[in-house]
Inverse folding.
């Protein structure tokens, strides 16, 4: 590849935040990658973000601390940022821009790929249909995840999103398949070392470390670098999925830190801020990350994303969760109140959604009655919540008999269905679901057909169950 | 061809200087690979342009070539049944798994041509000169470009030809000759000419009960569909694209998900148009500018789509255009405006947002076309308001220019009540013009029953607030009755799953039958209440479950079952005894 190793020194006119302003004395292109070399010969990666006839702006992807105008050199690569990857990336720990930090050998560069990726040709996309069993009823039965989907976890500070993500990564499998089917790419974006370590230990315990790759941009690393970490990681993921035909699961935490970095860098560029100070292009920018999930016709591998974000002040209308929700294929929302009541996983079922569920569940995929059961549980639980609001005002006395049954259903749904001590198979989740519905009058179950009621809920069966 | 040199680049916007002449909205080719762009501003010898493809690697000093004509698309027989990018370049499997910048793809394909004119015939712009057949799309007409008038001097015989071959020659009275192929170019930002606008003729039937029966949309009308994320905009748009009774669907995925586009491509070829019995994909054209594709092309994709829609309309077709989502288009406008350093208005949108929206929706109409037929373009735009807040600029401005407003409600969506159109926050200004349609279709009481349904749901809202304080059981029987009926209208009539094989489409006959049946129940139960039957006895009638599930259980091929159900209803009510609950207790 072209390596126009031009370098320039003494051309820097200004340093401001992560940005270097240079005189343009070499012929370089927009987005080209550069290396900024300081007095101590330390290399810092960067890229060109704006250009005119006389000048250019370089965004340094690490801290600019210690750089000076005169003794800093800039080397130009003549191409956009690339990442050299090979199959031996599995089992490795890398920093936020893909450099090994586990004292192992360098990674072989079998293929050099642009970290920005390219949009998947919509015609080449294969509709994601393969149901992934995560072991959580609220996901498997209510908001099913399929291979090639991007399904974020909307969480809040202090909620157990890392644990949920680690458990998904550790035990996700296809129906009837083995766990450990997946290559897991863990992407730490501005999180603490503990979080990364927790994840690493979980994977190690389950013996899955040799098909895990970790990209670590920790809280102490520069925020400009944070903008690149998911891109390096997804480039590796695309390589493994679409070149090496592996099923890749990418867990990214915490996308909120990514967005904060985006806001910071945008402000340093002097751009007009949008809602809450985030740049107007945040939607498009996030889309270039999330849209990299998918399945491609004729490729054996798939790329599934489970990004995690913490909603600032638990507000789902905040621009970060809001724009994410507009891009991803659903969301799993965690709830502080459930957490306070010791319910694990504290999944708030009503605002959670999986848009690809319809393509990967039901006849031929999971169970014929899976979609109807999920729908009925949703309808019943939302009625229960409605009654709960009523009861909170006037107490349970004014409630009708049926409403009281729903109120109780709501409690049990949270305690016995949402809450789970251990992994449940889809079948076990469904059984738990049918059992809850048996406690409601049949006349209220209008999302179920007569046949479904006969098979799963009829009186005869109720009796039998009571008898046994 | 004029030429300029780049002197500044930032994202999708560049500035270049030139001694030569450029025009506003002229399309340009940029740099070595020939990226497609458009001039958006001229200032002295400097032009400002937006580039529709990834500008990575572009450098100052590189050349910009003017094309001499405004950004245009090629309109012809190869459109239907295919998928295109925002600039109407076909996306095909041959291009590989990833979209690369600078594509100039053309699909080599032949189309059947049958002449409809002979030498010596006089024609005017927009006239039909032949019929066209393609392997993938429905039959179409070959149109004389709107700017051409004169005498046919030669026309090819029937046969299979590529779409750029000359198949007809027309000579103007001044002797100027035009060589016509099956295609012609048209600038996307300019509405295509028509003979005359028409008054609204009838509804665009969508097959969705809450839309057709409560908030109908006229053919040639415009509808807005605002809703927060996950409320069902895309599913509803796709459902309309599948089952509405338009002749042709132009579906533009503007800044949305790649998987959704793939889903449409996957599903449509397997579905059958309930009106024509042909494969759905034959009448469909998809424009895909997914959220991770370059932003400027997103801005153009809406115009591309409406231009294609007008072209198909000009052949005498009823065209429906679904745009998902116009908010992404507005954001693209905002982003480019920001890069130009324009003064930001409300929420950072440029001041001309409102007039651009007006221009777009103005292109919806039912018309007499130049070729003497009638055609229409109906526009249905989804809106994705930030934070689900409907007071933001895109929603409020769109509301001014559309006549039908379908609000998608997140509470309904969270309860998995679909379509999540909120009956009290939606409206249609096309109602009056559609009364005749329902009259002719055996539902003379439509307007009355519609009003009844809506007022019951309004009462429901009020009563529920009251019930929250005093308890539901404390409400007088008549009000409990209202609550029960409103609930029934919701469950039995308004709820309709897009994924149910039986209920995804509901014909006008079936809608009318269901509406009448529910109305009948309301009347009957009122009577029963009057004569002293206890409300509990009515609300515990086993028949209610049959009504609630009738959408799922009684399909298009069994409409007489509604009459039977109506008889069983009469029977059940006649058996209800006055004051029995107390006596039995
Ligand atoms: N009419 C319907 N019938 C059945 N399910 C529906 C219907 N409408 C929506 N849904 C369910 O809701 C989910 C979300 O709908 P959809 O993707 O259309 O939302 P959206 O409003 O387009 O969201 P976004 O703005 O993020 O694109 C769908 O995946 C589907 O499961
Ligand atoms: Mg959508």
């Amino acid at each position: 590849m072209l390596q126009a190793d031009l370098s320039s020194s003494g051309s820097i006119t200004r340093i401001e935040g992560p940005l270097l302003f240079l005189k343009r004395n070499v012929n370089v292109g927009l987005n080209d990658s550069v290396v900024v070399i300081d007095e101590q010969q330390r290399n810092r990666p960067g890229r060109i973000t704006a250009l005119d006839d006389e000048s250019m702006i370089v965004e340094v992807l690490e801290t600019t601390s210690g750089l000076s105008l005169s003794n800093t050199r800039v080397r130009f690569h003549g191409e956009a940022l690339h990442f050299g990857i090979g199959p031996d990336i599995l089992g490795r720990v890398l920093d936020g821009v893909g450099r090994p930090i586990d004292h192992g050998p360098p990674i072989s560069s079998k293929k050099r790929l642009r970290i920005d990726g390219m949009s998947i040709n919509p015609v080449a996309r294969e509709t994601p249909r393969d149901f992934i069993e995560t072991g959580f009823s609220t996901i498997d039965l209510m908001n099913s995840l399929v291979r090639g989907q991007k399904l974020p976890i909307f969480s809040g500070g202090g909620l157990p999103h890392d644990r949920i993500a680690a458990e998904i990564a550790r035990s996700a499998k296809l129906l009837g398949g083995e766990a450990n089917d997946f290559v897991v790419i863990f992407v730490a974006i501005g999180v603490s070392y503990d979080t990364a370590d927790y994840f690493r230990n979980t994977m190690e315990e389950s013996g899955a470390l040799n098909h895990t790759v970790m990209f670590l941009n920790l809280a102490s690393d520069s925020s400009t670098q944070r903008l690149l970490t998911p891109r390096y990681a997804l480039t590796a993921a695309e390589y493994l999925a679409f070149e090496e035909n592996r099923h890749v699961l990418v867990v990214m935490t915490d996308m909120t830190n990514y967005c904060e970095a985006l806001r910071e860098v945008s402000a340093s560029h002097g751009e007009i801020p949008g809602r809450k100070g985030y740049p107007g292009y945040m939607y498009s920018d996030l889309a270039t990350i999330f849209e990299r999930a998918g399945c491609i016709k004729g490729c054996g591998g798939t790329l599934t994303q489970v990004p995690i974000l913490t909603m600032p002040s638990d507000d789902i209308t905040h621009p970060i969760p809001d724009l994410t929700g507009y891009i991803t294929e659903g969301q799993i929302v965690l709830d502080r109140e459930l957490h306070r009541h010791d319910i694990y996983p504290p999944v708030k079922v009503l605002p959670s959604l999986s848009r690809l569920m319809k393509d990967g569940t039901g006849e031929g995929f999971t169970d014929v009655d899976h979609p109807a059961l999920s729908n009925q549980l949703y309808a019943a639980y939302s009625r229960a919540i409605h009654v709960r609001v009523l009861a909170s005002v006037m107490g349970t006395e004014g409630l009708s008999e049926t409403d009281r049954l729903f109120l109780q259903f709501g409690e049990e749904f949270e305690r016995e269905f949402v809450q789970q001590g251990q992994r449940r198979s889809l079948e076990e989740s469904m059984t738990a679901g049918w059992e809850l519905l048996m406690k409601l009058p049949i006349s209220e179950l209008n999302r179920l057909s007569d046949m479904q009621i006969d098979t799963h809920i009829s009186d005869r069966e109720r009796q039998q169950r009571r008898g046994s | 061809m004029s030429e300029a040199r780049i002197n500044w680049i930032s994202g999708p916007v560049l500035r270049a200087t030139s001694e030569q002449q450029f025009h506003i909205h002229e399309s340009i080719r940029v740099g070595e690979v020939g990226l497609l762009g458009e001039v958006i501003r001229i200032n002295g010898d400097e032009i400002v342009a937006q580039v529709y493809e990834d500008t990575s690697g572009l450098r100052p000093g590189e050349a910009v070539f003017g094309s001499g004509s405004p950004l245009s698309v090629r309109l012809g027989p190869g459109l239907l049944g295919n998928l295109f990018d925002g600039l109407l370049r076909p996306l095909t499997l041959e291009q590989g798994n990833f979209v690369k910048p600078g594509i100039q793809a053309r699909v080599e394909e032949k189309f059947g041509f049958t002449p409809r004119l002979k030498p010596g015939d006089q024609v005017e712009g927009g006239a039909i000169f032949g019929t066209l057949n393609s392997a993938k799309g429905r039959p179409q007409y070959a149109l004389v470009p709107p700017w051409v008038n004169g005498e046919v001097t030669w026309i090819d015989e029937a046969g299979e030809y590529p779409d750029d071959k000359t198949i007809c020659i027309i000579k103007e009275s001044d002797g100027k000759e035009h060589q016509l192929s099956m295609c012609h170019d048209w600038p996307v930002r300019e509405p295509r000419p028509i003979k005359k606008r028409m008054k609204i003729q009838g509804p665009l039937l969508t097959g969705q009960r809450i839309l057709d029966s409560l908030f109908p949309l006229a053919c040639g009308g415009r509808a807005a569909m605002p809703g927060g994320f996950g409320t069902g905009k895309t599913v509803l748009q796709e459902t309309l694209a599948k089952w509405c009774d338009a002749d042709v669907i132009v579906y533009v995925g503007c800044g949305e998900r790649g998987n959704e586009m793939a889903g449409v491509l996957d599903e449509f070829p397997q579905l059958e148009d309930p009106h024509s019995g042909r494969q759905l994909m034959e009448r469909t054209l998809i424009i895909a500018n997914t959220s991770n594709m370059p932003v400027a092309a997103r801005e153009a994709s809406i115009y591309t789509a409406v231009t294609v829609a007008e072209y198909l309309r000009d052949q005498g077709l009823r065209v429906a255009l679904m745009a998902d989502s116009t908010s992404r288009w507005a954001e693209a406008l905002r982003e480019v405006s920001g890069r130009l350093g324009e003064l930001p208005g409300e929420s950072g949108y440029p001041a001309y947002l409102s007039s651009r929206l007006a221009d777009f929706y103005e292109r919806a109409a039912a018309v007499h076309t130049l070729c003497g037929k009638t055609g229409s373009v109906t526009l249905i735009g989804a809106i994705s308001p930030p934070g689900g807040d409907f007071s933001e600029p895109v929603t409020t401005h769109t509301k001014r220019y559309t006549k039908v407003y379908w609000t998608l409600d997140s509470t309904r969506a969270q309860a998995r009540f679909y379509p999540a159109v909120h009956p009290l926050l939606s409206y249609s200004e096309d109602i009056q013009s559609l009364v005749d349609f329902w009259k002719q279709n055996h539902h003379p009481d439509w307007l009355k029953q519609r009003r009844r349904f809506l007022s019951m749901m309004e009462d429901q809202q009020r009563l529920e607030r009251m019930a929250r304080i005093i308890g539901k059981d404390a409400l007088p029987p008549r009000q409990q009755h209202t609550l029960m009926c409103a609930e029934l209208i919701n469950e039995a009539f308004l709820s309709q799953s897009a994924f149910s094989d039986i209920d995804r489409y509901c014909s006008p006959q079936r809608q009318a039958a269901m509406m009448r049946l529910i109305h009948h129940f309301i009347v009957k139960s009122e009577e029963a209440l009057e004569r002293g039957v206890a409300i509990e006895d009515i609300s515990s009638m086993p028949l209610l479950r049959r009504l609630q599930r009738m959408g799922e259980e009684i399909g298009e091929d069994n409409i007489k079952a509604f009459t039977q159900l109506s008889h069983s209803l009469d029977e059940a009510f006649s058996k209800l005894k006055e004051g029995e609950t107390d006596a039995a207790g």
User: Anything to note?
Assistant: Chain B has 17 helices and 26 strands. The longest helix of chain B spans residues 446-470. Residues A 326, 353, 355, 358; B 227, 229-236, 256, 384, 418-419, 497-499 surround adenosine-5'-triphosphate (ligand 1) (CB under 6 Å). The first strand of chain B starts at residue 3 and ends at 10.
